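Hi team,

Below is the intake form for Toprim domain protein from Pseudomonas parafulva. Please confirm the fields before the structure is written into the shared record.

FORM ID: S-0412
PROTEIN: Toprim domain protein
ORGANISM: Pseudomonas parafulva
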Amino acid sequence: MNARIKPDHPDRTLIDEVFARIYRDDVYPALEHDPELGFQAKDETKDYLNKGMCPSCGKRSVFVKKKQPYQLKCNRMNNCGYEERTRDRYQHLFENLSERFPSTPENPTATADAYLTRARGFDTSKMKGWYTQGRRQMKPSGVWADTVRFSLCDGYWERIIDARAIAGNDGQKAGIKSGMRYTNAGWVPPGQTIEKHDRVYIVEGIFHAIALHLAGFKAIAAISCVNFPWDIVEENAAKFVTWVVAFDDDKAGRTYIRKHLKQLRSKQEIGWVALAGKLDWDDVYRDGKLDQAFIEDACYRGRLFTAESARKLAYLVYLRRPAGFYLVEFNNQLFSVRVNQAELTKALDDQKLEGNRDIFYGAARVEQVSNCVPDLDYLEKDVITGEQRYHFSFAFPDESRNCQAALSSGSIADPRGFVKGMLDFTPGGNFEGGARELAWLKAKWLNDEYRPVRTVRSLPFLGYDEDTGTYCFPDFGFNNGRELQVNSHGFIEVKGRGIKTALATVKFERGEEFDPSWFRDFVDVTGMNGLSALSWWTATLFVQQIASQQASFGFLELSGEPGSGKSMLLRFLWRLLGRENTEGIKPSGSGASAVGLLRSFAEVSNLPLVLIESDRTYIDAQGRTVTIQFTWDDVKPMFDYHAQLRVTGAKTTGNEKRVDLWRGALAIAQNASVTGDEATLSRIVHFHFTKDGHSLALKPKADRLKAMRAAQLGGYLRRCLSNEKAWLERYFEAFPRFERKLMDNPAISEMRIYQSHAQVLAAAYATQMFFPDWSNHDLDQLAAHIESRAIDRQQRCKSEDPTAAKFWQIYHYLNEDVVTTIDAEGEREEIRETLNHSIDKELIAINIEHFQQRCRMAGQEVIPDVQLRRALYSSTTHKFIEIRKARSRIEKRSLNLWFFSKRGGS
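The structure came back. Fields below:
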């Protein structure tokens, strides 16, 4: 017998009216004035708000009903599919109620009443005297918060009302009176009695019990799954009560359900199980679905859960869904069930199947087909290539073997591929079924209308995804300043959509809460160079937002002798982002291959990438010190927004291509300053480090900075990203002011130079808000320092490369030879060019091999060939024109010649 408090479902008219008023008076105005959605009056219809800006796909495609504004939806169902409950979007209208509904002497439970009605959907008129309004002190802050309080044993249980207060209480939502005990007891709805043959639902929470009680079912709250109301069970031992264990349908709840059920039956009590599924009992009640039909389904789920064998489970499944073939999961193993339905019908002979298990067993064959249960979690799709992988969870009887793995489409196409995939990616998982069993599984995974397959966007980089405005890291993410946690499947939920990074092995420490107390030590030790680097470094977290408006973002260069502090600074800056033991990548030699370097460039978005030790110094055969630098011409395009790194063919039958874009910011750290032409140098904001400021007095401060780990400092990244909007507003407000200041300096004429240096200054102004100790005087000093660096950069761009200057010095010394000529006109001296092969008198044509040979013959220094060729490209003494094969004026044959303008600098 299923005893009910009253025979019919309770009248929800009052609750429906309350919720209708909330949505009419609070939610609907919030929708109309939501700046992110931006519904426009001209697009409204009689029944809908239309053409709102979709938070997911960015199109004007969101609509919502006016009279029932419960759910926002995007009408691009195939391309987007965004859905969001307005209750979740405007949660503050339902939960943060202390200010809107404060208690008064006339109504001391006003806040609690509002919470129980709005957040829980309860009819408080039927709960008179059940609760009071209390106050609880939050643990870390000591602030007092309003609670709704229920008497329990010799004390009380209470739930914090406001979401803000819960956040200030380390996330703890509820608690009991200090020192009280409720072991073997429980909370019973006031006035509820237990009669003979009643069915009583034992749930975890008081709100769960209230929901069942108001829905007409008798209930007791055990307060936690660890506890069970044995005292109440013993008080009613002779009444033949059916005790239904209805704890939460999660891992902890299921574990203790088995324990309590076994103990109930050992006491000769009638014990059942009911599972509500993914929703809590009070959620089901609030949605108006907690009726007899739902209870019957919950009890059926409980019977499935407590089945003691695979055969029993197969029988229970057949009762609800008769079929000749199906699969069942028992003890985390997979079994196939084949039922001879003709034989079963004949054996039943007009009897009902319910209660005739043995007849079913005689007509059914149950066989194990897998030693684990594979379940499709989601489909991962690479946003660049479109390639797809299927992510599975594998549950084993031995939970220590449980795992997750990504399989290719080929791995689930046929049984052999599936067996191989399981053996390759699971600890001993095996599949012994055939095509029929796999087809049944695929229909469940891919065609389940109640749980459609989830598609998750996979990013082939770390950091910022422009399409969703989300920062995606292996363990956490940020969207519009709000931190998001990676779920158990490894991806982030962003407004109904899944997103993850494919580079899940890169470690980013989430770090402690940001503490700016290290700032003064940092400035004292690293000076204005360090403060400039910190500003640029912070701006890299927003580089796409910046470069999308300003078309480019400058490179950072840190140069200086060994031991001057470059490495210490870079390692500290990386720890601010949660990266430990990181400095940079050597772009050549033993550091990275050409392909590896390109992949490193493509793997960051709104993050810095640092190239270190790009200059290589060696002693040549003649004992001279030679320095060779990385070819900086290769990275010049990365100055521009979304520069193409490389284009490769996609693995398709068409002409599709994969284009890798540059989404990060480039820093260079090496001993010698970067050399190159004006186009390269003007893209760089350069800071040179020396040992001049080093002293014993600063050593303790430097040691403190070195001792701080990424776990301490990583909170800086979260502080920056949670203030994305405010930082960018300050940056774009300050940039025109600083750019104008640099443009007004007559010593700076190159556009790239004043823009790149103004970017660092604006970034400094924006970053200042994170540090209380960062004074305006510091900012003024920094502005003067960066302006001086901009002037130095302008002068450097106009000067000749040292190697090229040495070449032209030797060239002019060796090129001219005085020849005495005697003819009919008499004797005279003429100057003859011995290195210039050009026939055109306006040009200089050099053959490098000929030049090197003459140097050796004349005892001049022979400049290394690689170093010389790189330097001549950026020559300003004589402007480089081209390299081509041409007839030599000197040797009367064709040679490879480097052509320059004979007029200096022209």
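SUMMARY LINE: The longest strand covers residues 373-382.

Thanks, M.
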